[in-house]
Amino acid sequence: MQRIHVTCTQKKCVCPGCSSLAYGAMEELGPFRVNSDGKTLQKNKYSWNHAANVLFLESPAGVGFSYSNTSSDYDSSGDRRTAIDNYIFLVNWLERFPEYKKRDFYITGESYAGHYIPQLAHTILLNNKNANKTIINLKGIMIGNAAINDETDNRGMYDYLVSHAIVSDQTLHDIRTFCNFSSGTIPIQCPTALDEYNQDVLFIDIYNIYAPLCNNPNLTAFPKKNLIVGDPCSGVYTHSYLNRANVQEALHANVTKLKYDWESCSDLISSKWSDSPSTTIPLLQEFLTNGLRVWIFSGDIDGVVPVTSTKYSIKTMNLSTKTTWYPWFFNGEVGGYAEVYKGDLTFATVRGAGHEVPRYQPGRALSLIRHFLKGTPPPTTKRQP
Amino acid sequence: MQRIHVTCTQKKCVCPGCSSLAYGAMEELGPFRVNSDGKTLQKNKYSWNHAANVLFLESPAGVGFSYSNTSSDYDSSGDRRTAIDNYIFLVNWLERFPEYKKRDFYITGESYAGHYIPQLAHTILLNNKNANKTIINLKGIMIGNAAINDETDNRGMYDYLVSHAIVSDQTLHDIRTFCNFSSGTIPIQCPTALDEYNQDVLFIDIYNIYAPLCNNPNLTAFPKKNLIVGDPCSGVYTHSYLNRANVQEALHANVTKLKYDWESCSDLISSKWSDSPSTTIPLLQEFLTNGLRVWIFSGDIDGVVPVTSTKYSIKTMNLSTKTTWYPWFFNGEVGGYAEVYKGDLTFATVRGAGHEVPRYQPGRALSLIRHFLKGTPPPTTKRQP
User: Which processes are annotated in GO (biological process) (chains A, B) (predicted)?
Assistant: First the structure.
């Protein structure tokens, strides 16, 4: 049930195939959280529904309740296909609920969504242009702890783990010296260094380097009453909840009775994913040219796509600064730091948040999405809301 | 009541003059913690008394309840005088409690104690040698988040705050380029960069970069029942408690009725401190040569004397590695990382701990002191205690 441990010995550290219903809706920004009994819910007072109408998409087919009637489809999943399918879904959804057609539309996501979201946004812009009308009224995108550029993502991850005293300088040095993943032959020192690396990260939650682990992955007979920010076992509760027959019935999900359990991350597709460009930065640059609002945020205690990676990635864009680095505030505390670039791109960190930002810092995350939707930068003073 | 905010624009980021009774005893490793009413106590189940007999020293005169009859003494405080006074105190204490004379003796401390402790240990070794007998049976020292080498302490602090996305790369670059504190003239860009820096760190607790602030510094009418790890207002409770007449009477403290409140950090002396060598590393090296056990630990979310500083400082010693960097365990979790050097010096980080390590990670800290006293390295496997 725990997220598959990503050892990051491969080129990419984050994989496609995880569910927005699992993470996004049930453990991060959705209106409810599952209690520790795996069957009752509590309200999430920091739900993003307070700021907007939110639609969660389990994508591509093979993830969560999404499926294909042609099982061979799972063997040919990839970024391009996902973007096209997501676009078709959206257009159909707007046909089904036409009252939303003219509304401002924003897309957000985290992790591998650093691919999905720019690619979907690009597809929307392209189709609007080809059709010479606004099919989908896209205004902006926001991505968090997002894979956007392999080279800087990887370099930033190693630098982060060293500067956060998880991996030693020596191991980093050895990996840099001996592990050239693009070359054919790998010297013996490389696997040794990677072994060291794996030993260092294996027993912590690399998605939140200071979080406790889920040591008792059992449901409780009675629900825990209080909303617990970042309960390490919350994935267990969600798994149980979404596999309940009455829940699936209420959600109108799994009507075809899939032959497998609902899972937060899909093994079906992630291993066969080949269509994954090394960067989505040209797309972000395209959006800035087209006046789309682009926000990039980063929970600063994530070790998978860390803040260092995102800083490096943004740096490759060579943007001019509009507002230099400053602390932004939520509820009288520093919510993180922000920098605004001409374009108009906003980068904001979220202090004390892991990979799933709204899970670990729900208040700060809700504040960010509100400012994003309003088009105002994260507040510079303690007094602002 | 809050610790004085150290802006670190000076050469040193940590100052002498804080009390071991305030921090060490009442908020970190002592047998009791003060409740939120400021007058009742709760037991600290992670007290270091479970591992050893512990003596707390408010030092030098002018700190806490320690005083001098000659008030001009406060104007001439310094490292040398502190070491001599501390030594005299210890010898007298052992005369008064001779049953402890032959016991193994260890000294530990944090922050500016990176000066006090090596200097006191050096004084003990010197006096033992001069007297040609064991006056104090010193076996080892342990220091945490300790100022030990100005140059690396400072460099490490800036690097830490940048890699932890608190200060921007640009500000660091400007400080490095324009702020040469040893030169006579300072270009205008330097104060500008330092202003930026101060804005970035001013509103967070730099002693624990992810901690909440104390927003309601009032005592409660009723004590909070549970031991709260790292209550941001605990300093308020301690201040109230140690200024109570009945508490002072019970402690046999303040019998001369000082004309000022007991304070956790002394303004009396810290501003006039001039005798502070730029490094205590030669003393650490002396101890290794003399077979003294030396442990250096580091809470890894402290921004004042961060883990980066301590890593840089140890590196200047050019030691050979005995056991390379590995995760150590407490209670089935990674307690931090450790490296053992020939000599015999052990470096251990404490994961998720701020400047006051036993305050934020009491279990991990107690485990560390136990291993230190036993002379066994922090455990390499999950199963070990």
Answer: proteolysis
Question: Is the distance from CB of A348 to CB of A294 less than 8 angstroms?
Answer: no
| CB-CB under 8 Å, B213 with A333 | yes
Q: Within 10 A of B385 (CB to CB), how many other CB atoms are there?
A: 9
Angle made by CA atoms B22, B23, B28, in degrees to the nearest 5 = 125
DSSP B60-73: STTSTT---SSGGG
Best mutation site among A158, A162, A163 for testing chain B: the one with the most B CBs within 10 Å? A163
Nearest 10 degrees: Cα torsion B81, B83, B84, B87: 150
The CATH number of A21-148+220-374 is which of 3.50.50.60, 3.40.50.1820, 2.30.30.760, 3.40.50.2300?
3.40.50.1820
3 state DSSP class of B25: helix
The answer to whether residue B371 is catalytic is no
Cβ burial of B13 (10 Å; 0-12, 13-18, 19+) is buried
Q: Specify the amino acid at residue A82.
A: T
Among residues A174, A231, A300, A302, the one annotated as catalytic is A302
Picking from B334, B361, B381 by the largest number of A CB atoms within 10 A of its own CB, the best residue to mutate is: B334
- Report d(CA B207, CA A126) in Å as an integer: 50
This model's pTM is above 0.90 = yes
Inter-chain residue contact B327 with A200, CB threshold 8 Å: yes
Q: Where are the domains of chain B?
A: 21-148+220-374, 167-200
User: Any idea which residue has 């002018």 for tokens?
Assistant: B62
Q: B286: how many CB neighbours lie within 10 A of its CB?
A: 16
- With CB atoms and an 8 Å threshold, state whether B170 touches A325: yes
Q: Catalytic residue at A355?
A: yes
Structure tokens at A103: 């509304």
Q: Which residue among A168, A209, A307 sits closest to B165, beta carbon to beta carbon?
A: A307
Whole-angstrom distance, CA of residue A170 vs CA of residue A164 = 14
Say whether A270 sits in a helix, a strand or coil. helix
Nearest CA in chain B to A381: B203
Choose the catalytic residue: A36, A47, A66, A111: A111
Q: Provide the H-helix boundaries in chain B.
A: 79-96, 113-131, 150-163, 169-178, 189-201, 234-242, 245-251, 267-270, 281-289, 307-315, 357-360, 362-374
In angstroms, the CA A99 to CA A111 distance is 31
Please give chain A's pLDDT, 385 residues, in tens.
233 334 444 445 688 999 999 999 999 999 999 999 999 999 999 999 999 999 999 999 999 999 999 988 998 899 999 999 999 999 999 999 999 999 999 999 999 999 999 999 999 999 999 999 999 999 999 999 999 999 999 999 999 999 999 999 999 999 999 987 666 677 888 999 999 999 999 999 999 999 999 988 899 998 887 667 779 999 999 999 999 999 999 999 999 999 999 999 988 887 788 899 999 999 999 999 999 999 999 999 999 999 999 999 999 999 999 999 999 999 999 999 999 999 989 999 999 999 999 999 999 999 999 999 999 999 998 754 4
Query: Do the beta carbons of residue B198 and residue B9 sit within 8 Å?
Result: yes
Run of H or E including A128 = helix A113-131
A302 is catalytic: yes
Torsion of CA A163, A168, A169, A173, to 10 degrees: -120
CB environment B107-146: b (16+ within 10 A), e (fewer): bbbbbbbbbbbbbbbbbbbebeeeeeeebbebebbbbbbb
Q: For residues B150 and B12, is the Cβ–Cβ distance under 8 A?
A: yes
